[in-house]
Design a protein that fits this description.
Keywords: Membrane, Transmembrane, Transmembrane helix. This protein is mainly alpha-helical. It has a domain at about 75-185. It is built from 8 helices and no strands. Helix 4 packs antiparallel against helix 5, helix 5 (about 75-85) packs across helix 7 (about 135-185) and helix 6 (about 90-125) runs antiparallel to helix 7 (about 135-185). The chain is rod-shaped. The chain starts with a helix and ends with a helix.
């Protein structure tokens, strides 16, 4: 593979990243080619040592998504991190996506239940005293407040679980990236052996 083809495919895979980040990444890989050619290696050898540019772009996008999540910690960054992790490969998607969708669906269901419980508690607190509940109006108000407090607690716990889930996905992406990184970069032993 030539330098131009490698960089073209890498740029295409980095679409969606901030322009400056993508430009820095491409510049780094141009430097790899410059250094390799200066060391007497062909463009094809440098490209082979760097690995598949499409896979490399997916891993770099996953790393960028993970960094954004650690910096911002908001739903948009969480979604970017999740999609970046899922973009790592088809095998990961086939294994991780069904599990992830089940967990996300369960968390979403509990969030909806917590919202419904909160509003039910508010309705009991407001309308209960006028409905002559057992224990009197004070019992209805306290019961309504209890339902609202329980809903708030459930929602807070679900938020913590959601953060743990995203952190777990980010950890998975980084582990995946670290395991593949040696295959993507030329090893120092090859470089030192060639120079000896």
């Amino acid at each position: 593979m030539t330098r131009q083809e490698f960089l073209r495919r890498l740029k295409a895979g980095l679409v969606g990243l901030p322009t400056t980040t993508a430009a820095e990444i491409v510049s780094d890989y141009e430097t790899h080619f410059d250094d390799g050619v200066a060391a007497g290696r062909s463009e094809a050898e440098v490209a082979a040592a760097l690995g598949d540019p499409d896979r490399l772009a997916r891993e770099l996008r996953a790393e960028a998504g993970a960094q954004r999540w650690h910096q911002e910690k908001n739903p948009s960054a969480a979604a970017a991190a999740v999609f970046a992790v899922l973009g790592l490969g088809a095998i990961d998607i086939l294994i991780l996506l069904p599990i992830l969708m089940g967990v996300i669906g369960t968390i979403f269901g509990f969030f909806i239940a917590a919202i419904a419980l909160f509003f039910s508690g508010g309705a009991v607190m407001v309308a209960g005293p006028f409905a002559a509940p057992p224990g009197g109006p004070l019992a209805a108000i306290l019961f309504g407040l209890g339902l609202m407090a329980a809903a708030t607690t459930i929602a807070a716990l679900l938020a913590i679980v959601s953060v743990w889930l995203v952190n777990g996905l980010v950890w998975f992406a980084r582990l995946h990236y670290r395991l593949l990184k040696p295959a993507l970069e030329p090893s120092n032993t090859t470089t030192s052996g060639a120079s000896a």
